[in-house]
From TrEMBL, chain A:
Residues 34-553 form the Cytochrome oxidase subunit I profile domain. It holds the Pfam family COX1. Belongs to the heme-copper respiratory oxidase family. Its cofactor is Cu cation; ferriheme a. This is Quinol oxidase subunit 1. The chain crosses the membrane at residues 12-34, 55-76, 96-121, 133-156, 183-204, 224-249, 311-330, 336-355, 376-400, 412-434, 446-468, 488-512, 586-617. Keywords: Cell membrane, Copper, Electron transport, Heme, Hydrogen ion transport, Ion transport, Iron, Membrane, Metal-binding, Oxidoreductase, Respiratory chain, Transmembrane, Transmembrane helix, Transport. It is a multi-pass membrane protein. InterPro entries: Cyt_c_oxase-like_su1_dom, Cyt_c_oxase-like_su1_sf, Cyt_C_Oxase_1, Cyt_c_Oxase_su1_BS, QoxB. Catalyzes quinol oxidation with the concomitant reduction of oxygen to water.
Automatic annotation (TrEMBL), chain B:
It comes from Fictibacillus barbaricus. SUPFAM superfamilies: Cytochrome c oxidase subunit III-like (SSF81452). Residues 1-201 form the Heme-copper oxidase subunit III family profile domain. Its EC number is 1.10.3.-. Keywords: Cell membrane, Membrane, Oxidoreductase, Transmembrane, Transmembrane helix. Its main location: membrane. The chain crosses the membrane at residues 25-47, 67-84, 96-113, 133-160, 180-204. It catalyses: 2 a quinol + O2 = 2 a quinone + 2 H2O. Belongs to the cytochrome c oxidase subunit 3 family. CDD domains: Ubiquinol_oxidase_III (cd02863). Catalyzes quinol oxidation with the concomitant reduction of oxygen to water. This is Quinol oxidase subunit 3. The keyword Transmembrane helix applies. PROSITE patterns: COX3.
Length: 646, 206
């Protein structure tokens, strides 16, 4: 392979990206060296097994990926703003919509919700850490390495261009030659390992590490949503693992699972992909539902309405999520019976979801509502998500879907559920738990600007796309003719897209502004909350979370303790030494070996792949033979940290 | 996390530490994920098994003797690994080591016959690239074989640790988990035996 094939060349946008990557890397290296931060980076972050720090790293990565995926989106909107545009060529456009979709779902939405779950769930259940802290670090690093492997594709070797769904035979080595599609397969495979491990880790954590007295039906709703999500992950991600492996075999070793030759079956890929893919959308939406439940209950100052109905509807949604996958390809021609069955199951999902919407509304009924930024995002979610849900029911009707299939109507629909659901949820959760993570709130006034600009821009961007869909504009086209008449609505849509971009920049500015000027929290209870994460005496909990494990006797225990003035104050006699796990650099090193293995596979350099895999096994063997029992935090250190005087 | 705990004297050693209990539950859940993984591979194979293209039908090349030897070796190894855990519960390090080594030898024997069979198929012109049906066969059966290989290497390392550290809450929970894994592979093999080999031979020979 020649160097000009190795690096992507010939496009000024790519050269610009090369320069900005080089400058950013140089800037980070300079900062770390000049301010002597290498030790800090290694000790405090790269080797940490603390769930709160791992959660923050997940969220920081997710925000970076939101930026990357957002730039992709704006490039597409720029190209589509006017008819017959020459801004991007078709290949480049294909690559951008592929990376936009893949990054936004797998490297933005998933890590964002998993990051919030990491930070919040152990605190909400009164635990000092997760069940498997070391494994948690492995999860993060495999996700991060998978994301990085996928991301370097646009400067080294070329990006995948077969869509985030990578339908066969388009994604085969015959029709998508080169390393691009391999990046997709290996990046997702490596990140998927981390997701599966997260699923196991948090399921065990929630089942086994709850504070005394916290029965399953006294758990906060966000923890419930995490529990259900983990179950979906455990049964859905192995399907993706297999599907990706089979396509990798097709591309690298000449097997015939999905190929047109050798009696392969291309639609088998579509089935396997969506057998994972549909549960996947519930993996990113259910935690968002949990976040909204917490926020609405907190700022309406009422117990969540229909607590048990909320749980049962989530369990129903989780079950249904595995029974609807065919609605992604009604037009495949499965016949009337099959399509009808999947049409009915799909519409049935609307029922438990509707239950949840009404429960949120009833929670607010006669509540003293406080319009903070997290609450604004939650209210915005209810109205906007319903639009996405209704259009979803329209798409669920198989006969009608023949009309909408592969048009901008579909594009508008899934952005209306994924953005108004997951992205609003992530933003709401970020604002809500920001003081728990960093010790101060984001500025509320700037935050409200972000909300309004983003929400208005979001609707300006996607409402016109429903009409473009009705008018027959297909998705995944890089340009259209003036005669089609699609120009004006596309221009409106692009303006909306840029408004969302502006709102994102204001959000980032708000992080900077609040870091500089926000008043620091003096208590652990920034919002007058209801659940245990707000019960820590300090704004940011110490690494062991709770000096004394709380005992719970009902839902919203902390809230009622505050009402009845029975909040316990820590005393010296309560303090006992605490056992905690040691930090480890091995998960990071394991991630690096995964990168070597993945990169070797992408280019078909098998010596390199084998080297990387041996390295991964080496780190696992190291782990097996290392008997590290962690360490104890002394009573003295705890008393000093907690500032106990009596 | 090891907290000072009191135990019922009848609690097996592997369940005595918090870490041990969490690891065992975590591993059961991991086996749930493995179940989903193999279920997907089985579904793939069953969808593709008639799609032989220009290649031979899968049932044509199967040999009864090789199949029976493999099945006998693996099923026996599951039994001996159960005996090993029985010895562990009785506190006999030596008994555990002997039965586990026998388990691994049976596992290696299984792998030997499986590899011999794969080589034979390739010699007869049935490779992963022959047809969709053969792709499905090699990846399903090969994934099981890969699991057995990983199991042999993994259990060997645990046995090495046991020979040095004897029975502790940490080593016994590792042994217990590895035996769960080994039994799981046995269960998967029973499904492969039925869905792949028996079905294939019955379809071909009638």
């Amino acid at each position: 392979m020649k160097w000009d094939e190795f690096f992507v060349t010939g496009d000024p946008l790519i050269y610009g990206a090369d320069v900005s990557i080089a400058l950013t890397a140089a800037g980070i290296l300079f900062y770390l060296t000049y301010f002597k931060k290498w030790g800090w980076l290694w000790k405090d972050w790269l080797t940490t097994v603390d769930h709160k720090k791992l959660g923050i790293m997940y969220i920081v990565s997710a925000v970076l990926m939101l930026f990357r995926g957002g730039v992709d989106a704006l490039l597409m909107r720029t190209q589509l703003a006017v008819p017959d545009s020459k801004f991007l060529d078709s290949q480049h456009y294909n690559e951008i919509f592929t990376t936009h979709g893949t990054i936004m779902i797998l490297f933005m939405a998933m890590p964002f919700v998993i990051g919030l779950i990491n930070v919040v769930v152990p605190l909400q259940i009164g635990a000092r850490d997760v069940a498997f802290p070391y494994l948690n670090a492995v999860s993060f690093w495999t996700f991060f390495i998978g994301a990085m492997l996928f991301n370097i594709s646009f400067v080294i070797g070329g990006s995948p261009s077969a869509g985030w769904t990578s339908y066969m035979p388009l994604a085969s080595s015959a029709l998508s030659p080169g390393p691009g599609q391999n990046y997709y397969l290996l990046g997702l495979q490596i990140a998927g390992i981390g997701t599966l491990l997260t699923g196991i880790n948090f399921l065990v954590t929630i089942l086994k590490m709850r504070a005394p007295g916290m029965t399953l039906f006294r758990m906060p709703m966000f923890t419930w949503s995490a529990l259900v999500t983990m179950v979906i992950i455990i049964f859905a991600f192995p399907i993706l693992t297999v599907a990706l492996a089979l396509m990798t075999f097709d591309r690298l070793f000449g097997s015939h699972f999905f190929t047109l030759q050798g009696a392969g079956m291309d639609m088998l890929w579509a089935n396997l992909f969506w057998l994972w893919g549909h549960p996947e959308v519930y993996i990113v939406i259910l935690p968002a539902f949990g976040i909204f439940s917490e926020i609405i209950s907190t700022f309406a100052k009422k117990t969540l309405f229909g607590y048990k109905a909320m749980i049962w509807s989530m369990l129903l949604i989780a079950g249904y999520s595995f029974l609807v996958w065919v609605h992604h390809f009604f037009t495949m021609g499965s016949g009337a019976l099959v399509n009808s069955v999947f049409s009915v199951t799909t519409m049935a999902i609307g029922i438990p979801t509707g239950v949840k919407i009404f429960n949120w509304l009833f929670t607010m009924y006669k509540g003293k509502i406080e319009f903070t930024t997290p609450m604004l995002w939650s209210l915005g979610f209810i109205t906007n998500f319903v639009v996405g849900g209704i259009t979803g029911v329209m798409l669920a009707m198989a006969a009608a879907d023949y009309q909408y299939h592969n048009t901008y109507f579909l594009v508008a629909h899934f952005h209306h559920v994924l953005i108004a659901g997951t992205v609003f949820g992530c933003f709401a959760g970020l604002m809500y738990w920001y003081p728990k993570m960093f010790g101060y709130k984001l500025n509320e006034r700037i935050g409200k600007w972000v909300f309004w600009v983003f929400t208005i821009g979001f609707n300006v961007c996607f409402l016109p796309q429903y009409f473009l869909g009705f008018d027959g504009m297909p998705r995944r086209v890089y340009t259209y003719s003036e005669a089609s008449g699609w120009g004006p609505l596309n221009m409106v849509s692009t303006i909306g897209g840029f408004m969302m971009g502006v709102a994102f920049l204001v959000l980032v500015y708000n992080m900077y502004y609040s870091f500089r000027y926000a008043t620091r929290e003096t208590t652990g209870d920034a919002w007058n909350g209801r659940t245990l994460e707000w019960s820590t005496p300090s704004a940011m909990p110490p690494f062991y979370n709770f000096a004394k494990i709380p005992v719970v006797d009902r839902l919203d225990h902390f809230w009622y303790a505050k009402q009845n003035n029975t909040v316990e104050k820590l005393e010296t006699k309560d303090i006992k030494k605490i056992h905690m796990p040691s930090n480890s650099g091995v998960p990071f090193i394991m991630g690096s070996f995964f990168f070597i293995a993945g990169f070797g596979m992408v280019f078909g350099w098998f010596w390199m792949a084998i080297l990387g895999i041996l390295g991964v096994f080496g780190t696992m063997i190291h782990r097996s033979f290392a008997y590290d029992d962690g360490f104890y935090v002394s009573e003295k250190e705890i008393i000093e940290t907690e500032n106990i005087t009596n | 996390m090891a907290h000072a705990e009191t135990h019922d004297p009848g609690t097996p050693l592997e369940y005595q530490s918090e870490t041990g209990r969490l690891n065992i539950l975590g591993f059961w859940i991991f086996l749930g994920a493995e179940l989903a993984l193999f279920a997907t591979l089985f579904a793939t194979y069953l969808v593709l098994m008639h799609r032989t293209g220009d290649g031979p039908p899968v049932g044509e090349l199967f040999e009864v003797s090789s199949l029976l030897i493999q099945t006998f070796l693996l099923l026996t190894s599951s039994f001996t690994s159960g005996l090993a855990i029985h010895e562990m519960r009785r506190g006999h390090v030596k008994g555990l080591l002997i039965w586990m080594v026998i388990t691994l030898l049976l596992g290696l024997g299984f792998l030997g016959f499986e590899i011999r069979e794969f080589v034979h198929f390739v010699g007869e012109g049935a490779t992963i690239g022959t047809s969709a049906a053969w792709s499905g066969f090699f990846v399903l059966v090969g994934t099981h074989g890969l699991h057995v290989t990983v199991g042999v290497a993994w259990i060997s390392m645990i046995l090495f640790q046991v020979s040095k550290r004897k029975f502790t809450p940490a080593t016994t929970s590792k042994l217990f988990i590895s035996s769960l894994y080994w039994h799981f592979l046995d269960v998967v093999w029973i499904f492969i035996f039925t869905a792949v080999y028996l079905t294939g031979m019955v379809m071909y020979h009638g």
